[in-house]
Amino acid sequence: MRRRRRRRREAGILLPLLLILLAFGIGAGLSVTAWIMSETEDRSGKITGPVLLAQSEELWETTERTLERREQEEPEVLAETEREEEEEIRETGTALSIAGEQSDPASAPRLRIVLDPGHGGPGLKDEQELGAIYRDTYEKYLTLEIAKGMKEELSQYGNIEIFMTREEDRALTLKERAAYAESVNADLLVSLHLNASLEHNFYGSEVFVSAFDRFHATGSGVGKSILAELTDYGFVSKGVKTRLGSKGADYYGIIRECRSLGIPALIVEHGYMDEDSDWSRMNTTEALRSLGQRDAAGLASYYGLEKGRVFSELPPVEETIPTTVVRPDLTPPEEVWYKKERQGDGHYLITLHGIERESRVMYYDYSLDGGVTYSKLFLWENGETMKILMDLTEGEEPVFRVYNNYELRTETAG
What pLDDT score does 344 carry? Predict the structure, then answer.
């Protein structure tokens, strides 16, 4: 690039010279030019005709030699300039020019992702439009903030095109949401939600997906990747799950409707609005936007995409398509019992046992008043037994409940 600037400066000098020559004649033009560009005094310090003529002739000869040399050097100079320009582009270019990427983003392949903020609408005739109602707020507002954070984050990935079923508070049926996804040729729909429980004691993140073939494979893959991000953020993972209705179809309408149109869909339940530890990660606009950013990072990671990079081909994704229906766990934990051992300090060591063959043991709680009230839910560690140190009176027998990640539980005899 520096060579190009030198050539421009030299051309700026030659052009006025040539104009003078054409305007005033070769002899007069050379004389005037010589007078302008060089010293025109003789040894006596006076300007004389012979001095002007001699310097004009010398300048003309110099100009001719310069032009001849440029004609010979021009191809080499152009080639060198092109090489310098290419090198400068490589050194200063963005990530779009790195090997393995697409230099023309407009022609790059794109995943078309539809974000579906759950619920929405006045809720005057259908409270489902409001979603969960806790902490003096409605789920419908929170899911919209999560979606905005997810959209903003995904927009930094070159191979993704983002759509939203709603960008304001308005009512949409499940059919309308699925139909919108079909209208934009969506590759995937992500429905964003927050949870709540009847006893206000559950916590953790979970994802629901279709139970069938490729719809399960895609939903499960994306769901696991998103859950990895949410657990890194501090949530407990309740896993990727399916749920079937009485007729054997997918239970959740948005999953069922999207599948009928050939679109994989998943529901992300980020956490429980009615549980303090989960609520602490969603109680501000910034926290909700962070949830959306986590969702986006998980989705992009599953598809092998990176910020600021546009791939000429989408990275391959390995998916294991189930050959049978992936059924939910419908049975509670088995072989639930406990034994207690008195310790030297008067405490009792409780060995709590439980087995879950279809999913996994998730929580336990206990009651010291015969099942009238229960403690908070504690996480179950790996394995079939838990060791718990308790302060009990002589003859006091606690009642334990052991839960799997489908929230099914088995109670011990008190």
Answer: 85
